[in-house]
Amino acid sequence: MLFDVFVAFVPIFFSIVLHEIAHGYAALAFGDDTAERYGRLSLNPINHVDIVGTIALPLILWLTQAPFLFGWARPVPVNFMRLRNRRIGVFVVASAGVIVNAVLAIIALLVLKNFELDVYCGLFFKNLLLINLALIFLNILPIPPLDGSKMLFGWMDNRLAKRYVAAEYEGLFGLMVLIIAFPLLGQYLGFKELEQFNPLGIYMQKMFELVLG
DSSP label at 50? Predict the structure, then answer.
């Protein structure tokens, strides 16, 4: 049981923490030291824990035997107005987390392909691969507050950018409904059609099939 929890949760904690730190370092490289001043470039996971995204959601997905785990850490503070070369800076900062997840996914895939692993090591790297692919597939969607919604901030006028930011809570609520509510409600009511009606799940499945075959 302890090993099951380890191989399930350590990869997601590791991946989402590095995802957020990447945003902070990218911002620092473009002139914004906000994350550094708030101590958010630390590898200490406690500094990045979000009760819902880091603990509750992964735990619910694990207990309900979801096909993949997903979560988020507490967002790293970034002042986009302080970035040099704002358009490119915003794009790089918003993309940094996904790039780190891609690197971790490639590392996990290379380990799985080239090394003989025992059962738990194999599960650890398989989970590391799937979690980072899930983080990539979800974060490229242009839905607030996901990274895909911020990649084009630098090309938006201030009024449109503010409207996008204001929609973050609505976007987060919509994601939670798609990830959790539809499947759980269908399972509780015994409606297979509702349980399987999960547009986000269908999108994720298609993306996994496209990448992994």
Answer: -
